[in-house]
Amino acid sequence: MDDRRMVRISKYLARHLRHEPHRIGIELDPRGWIEIEVLLQAAAAHGFPIGREELEHVVASNDKRRYAIEGNRIRASQGHTVAVDLDLPVAEPPAFLYHGTVRGSLAAIRSEGLRPMSRHHVHLSPDRETAARVGARRGVPVVLAVDAAATRAAGHEFRVSANGVWLVDHVPPSCIRFPG
């Protein structure tokens, strides 16, 4: 399968497993799962046929491991704007985590901290390189260091998704180390 097809399938999955399942007439269960065959049938019925092998290839080769397959079900690992409970246990984070953003967002972050915006959680990366790639999607990246221990001490619980993204409800400005 060529790279363009892989990207198109991945974006299609993100749209319908994280944000708009209703657009193709599917319903995710409370944990975000859907039967693979139901998803494939709905995609085909809405003009975007995906083969089972293509789906499995996209899931297995996605460098960010955005999707998980368990038995005959699939779900997005995190990043939902629709109501789901991924049922991730509270986890002990490393001392520091990282968040990629752009300079234009810094004033709001300095004032309000990191907020989930339209998602359910703030997404944090385990290393600076990953955070820089995330920030680069919106422009020149700025990487913020998050004092995870201080964030926990402030009463915020961390969870980690299947693909290693750390999730928290909010990071107060006092727990963020800003560059320069």
From TrEMBL:
A Pfam family matched in the record: PTS_2-RNA
InterPro entries with a match to the protein in the record: Ptrans_KptA/Tpt1, RNA_2'-PTrans_C, RNA_2'-PTrans_KptA, RNA_2'-PTrans_N
Keyword Metal-binding part of the UniProt annotation: no
Keyword terms, alphabetized: NAD, Transferase
E.C. number(s) listed in UniProt: 2.7.1.-
Superkingdom of origin: Bacteria
Keyword Transferase: yes
Family: Belongs to the KptA/TPT1 family.
Protein task: Removes the 2'-phosphate from RNA via an intermediate in which the phosphate is ADP-ribosylated by NAD followed by a presumed transesterification to release the RNA and generate ADP-ribose 1''-2''-cyclic phosphate (APPR>P). May function as an ADP-ribosylase.
Protein name as catalogued: Probable RNA 2'-phosphotransferase
Species in which this protein is naturally found: Sphaerisporangium flaviroseum
Lineage: Bacteria, Bacillati, Actinomycetota, Actinomycetes, Streptosporangiales
Gene name in the database record: kptA
